[in-house]
Amino acid sequence: MKNIIKTDKAPGAIGPYSQGVKKAGAIVFVSGQLPIDPATGQFAQGGIEGQAEQSLKNAQAVLQAAGAQMDDVVKTTVFLKNMDDFAAMNAVYARFFPKDCPARSALEVARLPKDALIEIEAVAVVD
Q1: 25 confidence band (pLDDT: 50, 70, 90)
Q2: d(CA 89, CA 29)
Q3: At what angle do helices 86-96 and 47-65 cross, to 10 degrees?
Q4: pLDDT by residue (tens digit) across 66-107?
Q5: pLDDT at 24
Q6: What is the pLDDT of residues 3-16, one digit of tens each?
Q7: Nearest 5°: phi and psi at 89?
């Protein structure tokens, strides 16, 4: 069974995709989360640090709507507009994953939706 995850605590999808999908009650796939504050519909302030924090908060909100938490994340993918922002992103990321960090890929991309500086997707396994 596939359950579509939808929460107003993270920005709504801006295309034909779901915020998240929970499959067979165990695996949660979180779509790439832009740094949009769901309360304002605007990008978070504070450069890459502010945008990284908001993207992670949005991923966390989708996970919570699926009955999961950050500790359940086993893999993330971080898309950066500029790899020079890697260290700053990493410092924010470490606050959300202080121990037993998930596997991760980080890529520099030419452009992100709405010209964001960052987008983060996640896969979680709920026991």
Answers
A1: low
A2: 21
A3: 30
A4: 999 999 998 999 999 999 999 999 999 999 999 999 999 999
A5: 62
A6: 888 999 999 888 88
A7: -60, -45
Are residues 122 and 72 in contact, defined by beta-carbon separation less than 8 angstroms?
A: no
For the chain, domains (ranges, CATH) are: 2-125 (3.30.1330.40)
| DSSP strands (E only) in the chain | 2-5, 20-23, 27-33, 73-80, 103-108, 118-125
Q: What sign results for the dihedral spanned by CA atoms 79, 90, 8, 81?
A: negative
26 DSSP assignment: T
Distance CA 19, CA 3 (A): 11
Q: Tell me the two tokens of residue 121.
A: 């997707």
Q: List the beta bridge partners of residue 75.
A: 103, 123
